[in-house]
Amino acid sequence: MEAAAPPPSPPPAAAPAPPAAEPGSAELVCAQGRNLKAVLCQRCGSRVLLPGAATFARRELLLPAMRKKAAAAPGGSGGGGGDVVREHWLVRDMFSFENVGFTRDVGNVKFLVCADCEAGPIGWHCLDDKDSFYVALERVAHE
Questions:
Q1: pLDDT per residue over 117-139, tens digit each?
Q2: In total, how many domains does the chain have?
Q3: From CA 73, how far away is CA 82, in angstroms rounded?
Q4: Does residue 2 fall inside a structural domain?
Q5: pTM (2 decimals)?
Q6: In what ranges is there compositional bias, type Pro residues (predicted)?
Q7: DSSP 8-state class, residue 130
């Protein structure tokens, strides 16, 4: 009786693959999971992020409805409802942004807005996690 050959060794462990992008966002994400295009403000076209500055991430977050500063109610988030957003650009260093502003604290969250026209919120930052800034794909343009 012949001895059985040992099973082939498994391939070396690779870094976890980035989450698969939805069909509408697939052309925005490179093979490494980073943004292929520049991220811009939908309202004024100001550049928020350069290509390659953020990683695609899927996380369910509630953002207040989009508005310009002049239309915002005084005292924070304003109460006008919001949207659940699921696809984001995750930025790990606030200095990676080309142009972004932050609201005052709303609980333990700061919302991200365009620093030029103050439209937003375009994203979300929890003060408990100093290294995670989320920019909602549906709230920005790409070039």
A1: 999 999 999 999 999 999 999 99
A2: 1
A3: 14
A4: no
A5: 0.75
A6: 1-21
A7: T
